[in-house]
Amino acid sequence: MDILIVKLGALGDVINTLPAVINLKEQTGAKIHWLIEPLSYPLIKNHAFVDNVIVFDKHHWHGSLGDVVQKVRKQKFDIAIDLQRIVKSGLLCLAAKAERRLGFDKARCKEMSWIFPFERIPAADPKAHMVHQYLEFVNHLGLSAGDIRWEIPLTGKHPYDLPEDYIVLNIGATKPANRWTPQGFASLVNVLHDKHKKVCVLTGSGEDLKMAQAIGQRIKVPVFDLVGKTTLPELIEILAEAEAVVSCDTGPMHLAVALGRNVIALFGPADPKRTGPFKGEVVQKTLPCSPCNKRHCEKPVCMTTITAKDVLERIEHLWSV
Q1: Quick one: CA dihedral 199, 12, 285, 269, positive or negative?
Q2: Same-domain status, 172 and 72
Q3: Do 120 and 188 share a domain, yes or no?
Q4: How many structural domains comprise the chain?
Q5: What is the pLDDT of residue 93?
Q6: Which pLDDT does position 9 carry in this prediction?
Q7: What residues have CB less than 8 Å from 30, skipping those under 6 apart?
């Protein structure tokens, strides 16, 4: 049996898909093919439960599209599953030579992608955690969703000489409204060092360099600033060795969960029941405007009112249990 997974998107989405893919592989013995974009490719290219990876580069779609279509037409799939639920993923799933094509129910589709003639899974709670929503496809195929595992491959190596028992502060977020404040992160770095003798490691992408600089200007203690310096494989190894990970709502938060770390997630505009850490602590203020799911906000009080004390209390709670 050959199963095509169409999940192109962000790192967190791909990570939340892995438990369903692992269940499909283990319970059917199928050869798993995954159509994905370059950003998350390093995560699954050596994954033990993925047999073949097809890369679609949307930024160079004119050169990539023909190659992708040729590959999904050349291979015959027993099942193709559109887990992205947008027009782009629907078209790619439709292009695949497959006996069955599965997709979400109409209410959970985006961009009118429900118009594609796919076999639709039954309607269910759209606010359920995405890990569970992806596992619905396992159930739809007459299988039983077993243990929830991610099986992220590790090498145990990265090029940075970090101290023992460090805490990672992942300072970035794709959506601007999801970001915490430089003062919040800096205060947390200072208090963790002064009160608990813990050294923090800052991580983030190149887009977070200004934030890292603003944090650095407010820090009075040693810190390892790796913002914009790590590849995804290096970030995986760094997170895997962390004592705890503090992160806003972004892909590395889900990655830390998948690696079994203690996670403290800072939430504002989004609903943590749906896209929050599958396991971990959530810091979120109760406000009449939250969750709003906005990408941008002129006054993101849901994030700016989170204090270093709020986060420290959650970290100390983890240490006490």
Answers
A1: positive
A2: no
A3: no
A4: 2
A5: 97
A6: 79
A7: 1, 2, 3, 24, 78, 79
